[in-house]
């Protein structure tokens, strides 16, 4: 396997060590193949919002598997899951499932281009929307981690169809829209792939108004924020409606599932209702749908209040542990990033300027103390409902020592 892994950020090269191979997980914990236990703050990069091996989810998967693992035909559970999604996102009247977030963003772009008859996509620096060819320029996540500005293998035409603007820069958005008349503006409403960098007050409203005025499609990529920062994702938390919403991670409850959705008018362009082709052998797979439904059914209003409390306790504990060092702890409900920066981080330029060497030392020191943070400055910590006070206390204790080692 290239780099020893099946997805780059698992490699841990960026923090100067070899990848950790996992043998099992339960609740808030991971165990590696050497028998070491870690408090896991990665949560499989988001899906495990209930913690690992949650009994209700496992039971739902077992039950579904007993009835066969894939039919290539629709099921009642898919209808229930679509209803659950539409019940949470005011802007989603119809939904189409895929197996990965990458497929979902790729399909949403195709639909936006078909609906507008335009080509160009506006994207924000530091945002990651999966490894879609045209969206890999100045992307966050594993590309930012490896310092790759764009990937070889992408045609000039694909690169030319994407225009990059800085996050939280209203003028740049307005200028790009008037210059290129885009098919769509795609944004993570709460970016978490350059670390967590929430929008400034009014910024997303500006993007919403500017896209509506220009007749461009606003695609909000809620693969991370959806079902996590609030019951109805960032759109509910921030009071903003997308034209198309992309979802994943929590939606599949730890199995491969993602989706895109929006108004009936837009979504009825998708085949076979309409002429925009998109398909998938394992889309809406019965095991993934069962895991997703079981997960979402546990995520009621009280669960989100609890997740917010867990996030705040963790973030405040990390802030206290950092003391007056050059560290910023950014957080929204369900997401945290520890930036090694003297100044608050508002965009990709500031995220990129962080002290990644110190972050690497911090991470290694945490791992040595049985705490597993994301092995990259440009990723989020993903609190789950399984993280109790003891997990947080151990993490904060470890962080006190790790900050000392990282920035002595
Ligand atoms: C915001 C966002 N969009 C899209 C994706 C791609 O999803 P997947 O890895 O399922 O292809 C990711 C993955 O991390 C993501 O964070």
Question: What can be said about the biggest beta sheet?
Answer: 7 strands, mixed
What is bound: which ligands?
Answer: pyridoxal-5'-phosphate
Rough outline: globular
Question: What is the spatial order of strands in the main beta sheet?
Answer: 4-10-9-8-7-5-6
Strand content: 5-15%
Low-confidence parts? none
- Number of helices, counting only DSSP H or I runs of 4 residues or more: 14
Helix-strand string: EEEHHEHEHHEHEHEHEEHHHEEHHEH
* Helix and strand composition category: alpha/beta
Arithmetic mean pLDDT: 96
Describe the protein's architecture and organization:
With 408 residues, the protein is of the alpha/beta class. Helices cover 38% and strands 14% of the residues. It has 14 helices and 13 strands. The protein has helices at 55-66, 76-88, 101-116, 141-146, 156-160, 170-180, 203-214, 233-238, 264-267, 286-298, 301-322, 348-352, 356-368, 389-406, and strands at 22-26, 29-32, 37-40, 94-98, 121-124, 162-165, 184-187, 217-221, 244-247, 258-262, 328-332, 335-339, 371-372. The strands form 3 sheets. The chain has a 7-stranded mixed sheet with strand order 4-10-9-8-7-5-6, sandwiched between helices. It has a 4-stranded mixed sheet with strand order 1-2-3-13. A two-stranded antiparallel sheet has the order 11-12. Strand 7 (184-187), helix 7 and strand 8 form a beta-alpha-beta unit. Helix 2 runs parallel beside helix 10 and helix 13 packs across helix 14. The model has no long low-confidence stretch (mean pLDDT 96). Pyridoxal-5'-phosphate is lined by residues 45, 100-102, 105, 128-130, 141, 188, 193, 221, 223-224, 248, 258.
């Amino acid at each position: 396997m290239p780099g020893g892994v099946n997805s780059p950020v698992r490699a841990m090269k960026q923090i100067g060590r070899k990848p950790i191979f996992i043998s099992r997980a339960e609740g808030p914990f991971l165990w590696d193949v050497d028998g070491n236990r870690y408090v896991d703050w990665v949560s499989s990069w988001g899906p495990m919002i209930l913690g690992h091996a949650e009994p209700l989810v496992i039971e739902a998967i077992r039950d579904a598997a007993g009835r066969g693992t894939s039919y290539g035909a629709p099921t009642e559970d898919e209808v229930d899951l679509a209803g659950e999604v539409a019940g949470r996102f005011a802007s989603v009247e119809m939904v189409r499932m895929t197996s990965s977030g990458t497929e979902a963003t790729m399909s949403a772009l195709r639909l936006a281009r078909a609906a507008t008859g335009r080509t160009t996509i506006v994207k924000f620096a530091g945002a990651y929307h999966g490894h879609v060819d045209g969206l890999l320029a100045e992307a966050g996540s594993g590309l930012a981690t490896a310092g790759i500005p764009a990937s070889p293998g992408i045609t000039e035409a694909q690169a030319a169809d994407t225009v990059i603007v800085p996050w939280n820069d209203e003028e740049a958005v307005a200028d790009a829209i008037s210059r290129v008349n885009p098919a769509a503006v795609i944004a993570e409403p709460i970016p978490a792939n350059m670390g967590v960098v929430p929008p400034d007050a009014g910024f997303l409203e500006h993007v919403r108004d500017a896209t509506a005025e220009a007749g461009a499609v606003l695609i909000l990529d809620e693969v991370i924020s959806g079902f996590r920062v609030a019951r109805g994702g960032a759109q509910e938390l921030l009071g903003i409606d997308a034209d198309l919403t992309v979802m994943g991670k929590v939606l599949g409850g730890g199995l491969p599932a993602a989706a895109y959705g929006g108004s009936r008018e837009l979504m009825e362009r998708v085949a076979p209702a309409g002429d925009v082709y998109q398909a998938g052998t394992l889309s809406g797979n019965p095991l993934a749908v069962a895991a997703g439904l079981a997960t979402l059914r546990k995520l009621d209003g009280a669960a989100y209040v609890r997740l917010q409390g867990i996030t705040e306790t963790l973030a405040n504990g990390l802030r206290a542990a950092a003391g007056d060092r050059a560290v910023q702890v950014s957080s929204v409900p369900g997401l945290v990033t520890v930036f090694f920066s003297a100044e608050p981080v508002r965009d990709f330029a500031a995220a990129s300027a962080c002290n990644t060497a110190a972050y690497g030392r911090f991470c290694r020191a945490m791992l040595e103390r049985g705490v597993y943070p994301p092995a990259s400055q440009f990723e989020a910590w993903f609190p789950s409902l399984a993280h109790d006070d003891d997990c947080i206390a151990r993490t904060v204790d470890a962080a006190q020592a790790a900050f000392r080692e990282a920035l002595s």
